[in-house]
Design goal:
Order of helices and strands: EEHH
Radius of gyration: 22 Å
Oligomer: single chain
Strand order of the largest sheet: 1-2
Number of helices: 2
Length: 72
């Protein structure tokens, strides 16, 4: 990913490192950011499977939190 420059305390990004950085940046931008946006609370109009799953998890966490408060 990086290599040390001879006789110095500096490093340089290798060609492989640059390609990997670009791959992960583009993957995040195209896949993760757009996909996870549907699961965020601000997208109420979107009814996607991922959104429904996150809503279910959120409701279950609230149920468990309420039970814990009653037990305490």
């Amino acid at each position: 990913m990086i290599e040390r420059l001879p006789r110095s305390h500096r490093y340089c990004v290798t060609a492989t490192g640059l390609r990997a950085a670009l791959f992960f940046t583009r993957s995040y931008t195209r896949v993760m950011r757009s996909g996870l946006a549907y699961a965020l609370p601000g997208h109420r109009a979107v009814d996607a499977p991922l959104k429904r799953c996150f809503n279910h998890v959120e409701k279950e966490i609230q149920v468990w939190t309420n039970r814990a408060e009653l037990a305490a």
